[in-house]
Amino acid sequence: MGTVAIPVLEAVAVGLGIFQTVNSIHTAKKTEKAVAAAVTAQTKSNAEQEKRLAAEQARQEALARAKAAASGLSGSSVDLYLNALSKVNDEEMDWLKQVGATKVAKISTEGSLAYNQALSNVFGAASNTATTAIRYYG
After folding, report:
1. HSE value, Cβ hemisphere, 13 Å, CA-based, for 72
2. Is the pLDDT of residue 96 over 70?
């Protein structure tokens, strides 16, 4: 009976190794899909934030022009103010775009690291399985 149990344990060890390898492949694929989805979601969020900011800035600039026209003021000081407002708004939009791009890059980098780790697990599990099989079955 003892001689029968050892080959069964060997077969179970190899089988578990194969299961671990397949599971690692599945995890790597899930990680890759999750990263792509996260990048897409962040990109859409960035676009929505930019759209909202652009609308708010257009409203602010239109209001400033309307107030200037309604007050009867004109000249270089009003033009300077409106140009400064436009410049500040452009800088704010550039900053928002940079922040959004940084968020996408961070997600992509972290996702790439997670995917590479998952692939490393695939190769490690496959290597361990092969070593076990060679040890037991020559």
Report:
1. 0
2. yes
Per the CB < 8 A criterion, the answer to whether 39 and 108 are in contact is yes
- Which amino acid belongs to residue 28? A
In sequence order, what are the residues at sequence separation of 6 or more whose Cβ sits closer than 8 angstroms to the Cβ of residue 85?
60, 61, 64
Q: What are phi and psi of 79, to 5 degrees?
A: -60, -40
The secondary element (H helix, E strand) that includes residue 79 is helix 76-137
> How sure is the predictor about 126, in pLDDT bands with cuts at 50, 70 and 90?
confident
Output the DSSP codes for 35-47.
Answer: HHHHHHHHHHHHH
Distance CA 77, CA 85 (A): 12
C-alpha dist (Å) from residue 57 to 53, 84, 94, 107: 6, 13, 13, 29
The count of residues in the chain is 138
- What is the C-alpha to C-alpha distance for residues 41 and 47, in angstroms, rounded to an integer? 10
Give one word for 74, left, alpha or beta, with left for phi > 0 and alpha for psi -120 to 50: beta
